[in-house]
Amino acid sequence: MNLDEIKNKALENHIPIIMDDTLEVIEKVMINNKPKKILEIGTAVGYSALCFSKFLENGGKIDTIERDEERIKEAKENIKIVEDGKQINILEGDAVEILPTLSDKYDMIFIDAAKGKYPFFLEQALRLLNENGIIFADNILYKGYVMSDYNKHKQRTAVTHLREYIKLTTENPELETEILEVGDGLAITKKK
Ligand code: SAH
Ligand code: MG
User: Fold this and answer.
1) Per-residue pLDDT, 156
2) CB atoms < 10 A from the CB of 98, how many?
3) pLDDT digits over 171-192, tens only?
4) How many CB atoms lie within 10 A of CB 147?
5) Cβ(133) to ligand 1 under 6 A?
6) How far is ligand 2, taken at its centre, from the CA of residue 190, in Å?
7) DSSP state for residue 148 in the 8-state scheme
8) Full DSSP string of 120-140
């Protein structure tokens, strides 16, 4: 399958792949920052990883974590279309267990998995981020729930943790964070 077919199949199967306007923002940053090593938390079927790989330098690599076996199987098939000279590695398992075992540094980290784990993912991402690296967190506004005072929703645990993520990234004097209303909300964090 080519990238469009992978995208359309994912949409048909209701897999929450990255939205076009979110992708556009990240691609612009990648053109400027030229990341060579990327970490992604939440592979799904490999669509976002394949999109990012287009903007990777030759010799660059993406490590991407996924725990769902069916999706891993599909992602492995899909990432075969990655261009020569670029690498996508799927790390299989729960990111909560895998992240603490990593020690390589990354130029870009894309957080796009269990919303309730965002504060933990942030802590690990900050540890694994290069000096000039950048962290993106997708779905940070979660359908608008995060910025509204509506807190009786059944997803309130996720909302609480997403609010915590925003607080941690915006109130830390060593970090610079922008929250964009693209897609389902995108947080962009850099070290000052
Ligand atoms: N980044 C993908 C979409 C990811 S959807 C894209 O834009 O194309 C989120 C994925 O994260 C799901 O496939 C889900 O199985 C996975 N996930 C959620 N919590 C996880 C965890 N704790 N560890 C590993 N994978 C997780
Ligand atoms: Mg997402």
Assistant:
1) 82
2) 17
3) 999 999 999 999 999 999 999 9
4) 16
5) no
6) 19
7) S
8) HHHHHHHHHEEEEEEEEEETT
Which DSSP string do the residues of 57-112 spell out, in sequence order? PTT-EEEEEE--HHHHHHHHHHGGGPPTT-EEEEEES-HHHHGGG----EEEEEE-
Q: Does pTM surpass 0.90?
A: yes
> What is the rounded distance in angstroms from the CA atom of residue 172 to the CA atom of residue 101?
25
**Ligand showing the shortest atom-to-Cα distance for residue 187:** 2
Determine phi and psi for 150, rounding to 5 degrees. Answer: -75, 110
Q: Report the mean per-residue pLDDT for the chain.
A: 96
Higher per-residue pLDDT: 128 or 143: 128
Q: 14 C-alpha to center of ligand 2: Å?
A: 12
Q: 78: which 2 tokens?
A: 């899909």
In a 3-state reduction of DSSP, which class is residue 21? helix
Cβ neighbors of 164 (< 8 A, separation 6 or more) are 118, 119
Backbone φ and ψ for 38, nearest 5 degrees, come out as: -120, 140
Question: Which domains does the chain show, CATH number per domain?
Answer: 3-138 (3.40.50.150)
Return the half-sphere exposure (C-beta side, CA atoms, 13 A cut-off) of residue 153.
15
Instruction: Answer whether 48 contacts ligand 1 (Cβ < 6 A).
Output: yes
- Contacts by residues 10-16 (CB-CB < 8 Å, ≥ 24 positions apart): 10/44, 10/45, 10/47, 15/44, 15/45, 15/47, 15/71, 16/44, 16/139
